[in-house]
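Dissemination and training. As part of the outreach component of the grant, students in the summer workshop were shown how a complex can be specified as a set of sequence lines and then modelled as a single object. The example used during the hands-on session is reproduced here so that future cohorts can follow it. Participants entered these lines:
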Amino acid sequence: AQKVTQAQTEISVVEKEDVTLDCVYETRDTTYYLFWYKQPPSGELVFLIRRNSFDEQNEISGRYSWNFQKSTSSFNFTITASQVVDSAVYFCALQSNAGNMLTFGGGTRLMVKP
Amino acid sequence: DAGVIQSPRHEVTEMGQEVTLRCKPISGHNSLFWYRQTMMRGLELLIYFNNNVPIDDSGMPEDRFSAKMPNASFSTLKIQPSEPRDSAVYFCASRLRNLKNQPQHFGDGTRLSIL
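and obtained this result:
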């Protein structure tokens, strides 16, 4: 069985602060894929990034960066200089190569206050 | 490029009525997924199609739920008869090819309220 845990259910920051969203996963598969999705207040689910289990290189995209550490089974997401528009629920998800299911974490609600 | 299109965006109906949710996947995507999102259970996979064929329907809660994909550009999720506990946001997602490393792209969802 696979599992994704997002221990932070809700985070509140003030605009321009940096914030890190934690994601810890469990899987028995050696090949798997990790994803982050954003769900803004309007409700849609927006794909942000994908990471393969065999590629531990960190990635930066503008104010967003992702830290994948296989040794600790973590795939954390950092927003630098947060903005009000970053307010959303963020989901981490795991897809094993063996199964069909994309397993989602419970989500972290990020509130960025002006 | 058009994303995944779901209709209706909102549906309010009385219990016992039949509800049909519709989904048009991204053109060229041949894997399609139906999910349900609730506060209590989060995002749950209901059913998954590949090349219009249902591959895994183990997440369909009960016989009241059924899903079809008559062609590559259209899928429906039907609830008959509907019950208040079916109230949720239902998402459709599509993926390019049956490759696990490809991201699923989601529609805007249908917010379903059963009174």
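The mean pLDDT of chain A is 93. Students were then asked to discuss how this feature might be tested experimentally.
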